[in-house]
Amino acid sequence: MAYEKNKHLANIKKWKLDLSLLYESIYYGDINAPIDIKEFKGFKELCGFEIKEVKGSLNFRNCTSLTSVSNFPEKIKGLLVLTDCISLKNISGLPKLVIHDFIFSGTPLFLKFTEQQIRERYRIEPLDENIRKWKIDFDILSDGVYEGNIYIPKDITEFRGFKEPLGIEIKEIRRDLSFHRCTSLTSISNLPDFIGRSLDFDKCTSLTSISNLPKLLGGSLYFNECESLTSVSNLPEKIGRCLSFYKCTSLASLPILPENIKGLSFGYCTSLTSISKMPSVVKGFIYTGGCPFFENLTEDQIRKKYGIRKE
Which residues pair with 261 in a beta bridge? Predict the structure, then answer.
């Protein structure tokens, strides 16, 4: 028993496993195999404990002496990497689910196969391409509330909510939602009602108008350099930080702006002709440089003209 315990401790150290990341057979990090490994029969034999799920990636890159692998964790959230394993001959017990890519370049055993063929051959559950592309983490989604950031794929042309591409409802996002540099995006609908931090449309150069924005936004709302944007309606009832339309050169009109925001930018909005109502409180900056609508007034003059307080 002492020999087995010492062997397990030596293997844990060699694999650089951090036991503080292991909880109920789930490892919350990446695992990198030592490059001199010759066979892998699972973590139970290797370390004396089960790892059924890896929240990061499992990496066997450049394990040139590796001849056989078996008894993988059932689920790998990140990548499964078996690249340049030139001696690999036998493989069994692959994961049932690999969330992201299975990478195997330079390994002769897989040379004639595509990733899809390997998934089918070894019965690795296929993953919906949209889920892979959108990088949604289902571990932080519960009852329509998403606890992390969401970055929309840059090649998207229209957004109709999360139900259509992913088959899920997201009513709240606790962090950021970013459409940054989605240059082909032309229409947006069915956004979540609440976003805990910022909503970013910067450099969405094909977007011409937008409505049905979230009711509540904990952070900032950015439309910087949306050069085709002509109008925005139904702004959030509350914006926790800043509202910015910097270099929205086609923007002609705006509705009632939300109260008690921390900053406003209309810099170089050269086509702006009307704002239904300015807020009565802007706690921070008001930037209007290059915007003819404000007639070259200073910030203090703008505050006086529109009755905007700092408190």
Answer: 282
Asked whether the beta carbons of 137 and 148 are under 8 A apart, the reply is yes
State which of 92, 126, 160 marks the end of a domain: 126
Whether residues 145 and 202 share a domain: the answer is yes
**Do 121 and 224 belong together in one domain?**
no
pTM: 0.69
> Is the same domain home to 118 and 159?
no
Tokens coding 48:
């004396």
- Domain enclosing residue 248, as ranges: 131-306
CB 191 within 8 A of CB 162: no
Q: pLDDT digit string (tens) for 13-71? A: 999 999 999 999 999 999 999 999 999 999 999 999 999 999 889 999 999 999 999 99
The C-alpha atoms of residue 55 and residue 228 are separated, in whole angstroms, by 41
Q: Are residues 120 and 148 in the same domain?
A: no
Indicate whether 223 and 266 sit together in one domain: yes
Cα-based distances in Å from 81 to 6, 30, 103, 243, 295:
28, 11, 5, 43, 60
Write out pLDDT tens, residues 157-185. Answer: 999 998 877 778 899 999 999 999 999 99
